[in-house]
Amino acid sequence: MIEIASEQRVQPQGDAELRLLDIVGSLASDAQARGRAPVTLDSRLEQDLGLDSLSRMELLLRIERAFGVALPEQTLVSAETPRDLLLFIDRGAPPAAIASGERRPLTQGPSASPLQAQTLIEVLDWHVSVHPDQLHIYLYGDRDSAEEITYGDLRQGARAVAAGLVARGLEPGQAVAIMLPTGRDYLFSFFGILIAGGIPVPIYPPARWSQIEDHLRRHGGILANSQARLLITVPQAKPLFVLLRAHTEALRSIATAAELVACTGADSHVARSASDLALIQYTSGSTGNPKGVSLTHANLLANIRAMGKAMQVQSQDVFVSWLPLYHDMGLIGAWLGSLHYGMPLALMSPLAFLARPSRWLWTIHRHRGTLSAAPNFAYDLCARKLQDADLHNLDLSSLRVAFNGSEPVSADTLDAFIARFESYGLRREALTPVYGLAECSVGLTFPPLSRGPLIDIIEREPFVSRGDALPATASDPRAMRMVSCGRPIPGHQVRIVDTAGREIGDRMEGRLEFKGPSATSGYFRNPEQTRKLFHGDWLDSGDFAYIADGEVYITGRVKDVIIRGGRHIFPYELEEAIGNIPGIRKGCVAVFGSFDPIGGTEKLIVLAETRETERQAHERLIHEINAAAMGVGGVTADDIVLAPSHTVLKTSSGKIRRAASREYYERRGLRVRPAPAWLQFVRLGAAAVRPELRRHVRGIAALLYAGYAWAAFVLVAMATWVLVALARRPAFGRRACHGAARLLSRLTGIRVGVTGLANLPRTPHLIASNHGSYLDAILLAAVLPPEQRYVFVVKREFARQRIARPFLDGIGAAFGERGDAKQGVEDVAAVEQAARNGVFPIFFPEGTFDRRPGLREFRMGAFLVAARTGLPIVPLGIRGGRSILRDGTWFPRWRAAAVAIGSPMAPIGDDWAAAVALRDRVRVEIARLSGEPERVA
Prior knowledge:
Luciferase, domain 3, 5 domains, seven-stranded mixed sheet, 31 helices, globular
């Protein structure tokens, strides 16, 4: 059901507002039969609540009955929000006032909702205006007792820091680096920078002083790139100022949070907009030098809201996190997400978790935590290392979502964690593998809520040699287990492309690209890397992946994958296998390729930490590492380096820095004598010729087929257009289109199967079908009997096109308006009359389509026509159209398609409620016939 936002219930503005919101909420419940959405005075009737032109017409009728008023016709066209409707009801405002789009500023009263907030500052201001004393964070330090921070505390502390920043000369739009551990100072500093008009740049303190040289080199580059004017850090780091200044001329001063608060200065609050930068999130640098991802307030809020919608987050949830605040999953996913939704956050230090991992689980127990997140290694650590005595009376039954992300997710770890903690109340459905990246703020793909992990078992040889993820049997000892990371979050899209940038089909590995409102506009002051990031309006994730049944499976970082003899070796899989060898430090193995200038080949290098020092122990480890390499990749390592603890370099989030490890290896000359160059060329060349030749042949064949298919389509379409447009007889036009569609199917080799033809009644009826591709109309024309008086209902915009209009008139097409509410009502009435006259209308109730799988919201036109005429609707499901020709691409693929026809469904009644009920029944059947999943948005 649709709910009135809780913020509206805190301090209602008046009886008229509440009555109106009740009416809108009731109708929106019908329109959004699949999900929940808050209803506020500023909710957009169509975009937010799913009310199309016909639904808005029903809304006006209900308002007129409830308020006893006669609303002008212009209301149907102009009103965009419930607040606009109030202007007509209460004030009798002219249409021009509505069209101006005026909105009450968010900060004028507590009746506003964070959903209308344009910036993070507005989100905080809203909470302070409504419930300043409500608890925001339980902050845990070294002890088990927590410090409590309210929304009022956060803003007060942030304003004090902001005043200190302004007193030190910070100007709007300048960057400020934060190098602080988890604590009050970090929280206050982050929002203090925003309030002062600055841009926060989180960086992490050095984990070990033994790596201070590498730490300064990396962070000196960050400070130089961001042109940070000031660094907020701990007192112990202040002596580093001189060294840091050597890397950046822009850095003016270094200060602690206490020093900033002690500065005397006026309260500062710089107005910011949604398009302003809210954060420069430097990538972890696991595959190379870190780059500053530019993220606006709009990016962050879009991501937070999309993730919250996917996981149905509410203020009653409790988030428990030990993730560092300098990392996007801890900063955006845990803290800022909790702030937006008004749920308590139990916040621990990462060091507290590493020192005693059980504290994470006991904090979930103590606060009845419902949400938490961690990288894969944390789940593995808890499953392997915790003793039963540490877990006595532990209760994890409150946990409904446990995100596993930030690094590759291991199926074995998921199994081990579930097996270990099911007896402590953990539900398997709570484990939620996810995928995200800084370039998309933080989250990109989430699995369905409460689904639990989905494991895809695939054959190893086809995958490592060709990138084909073919299903394998569970008994296959060499099979690979890949973990699904779900589907794109609402409003976002992904695709898989080959090396030429062409989209490829299901179960084929390629580069994952994405787009959506959370996506960055580029890297801060780095135009070269920004150009590499974008491919048109798509962004390159830098990851390999494949899609199966709409689910995304991440297979590895592009820069990490090692190619030996045409075979792909995935470092993470080999690192995990080597980490399980007794004597090797688990999680402290780096596998990477190193170019050999003598042989001109890429060598497979293993850098593994061990505490073993005896020669015999080293010989045993080398033998077992090579055995593991043969088992995983079918090759042995060219060089194995057994190193002492803390040798393998890692990012701030614990990922292996393979590129840096490669530099470490090559800089120190830790090499073995390579085989003769001629032997390497012969060996690698023989192994690589066949797979490379297959890839090229497959790419050329796909390109030739696309060209041939378009040539066939153009020729058949031109001939059909001439016949239909000149004849101008719908009966002839239907037969011509049927023959042309079947001919095109034969010419292109696209088989179109059909089931359920017997379900089509001879008496008048309507057809409703899912819509996933431009090919859908052609597929229906090929299978539906031409002797029936079927008429497509198409977008009215086609009626204004010189080429399309004669053809559409020739087949007797009907037109429906989507944008103009008044015209849309008139068009439905016209289709209704045609149906009464014996025409069989064909509707695509989704109205349009995009590349994402899943059914969109259904518009009400078809179901109102059915209810008013009493005619049944025949549900129809199309499979395969999207795979042949996906939205956003003109590159057709050779695939099969199928059309399934369901049993007729008659309306029960002739009013709006009957139309809504019919829509819901038809939608369920179309989803079953088409195999399309439900979409959150």
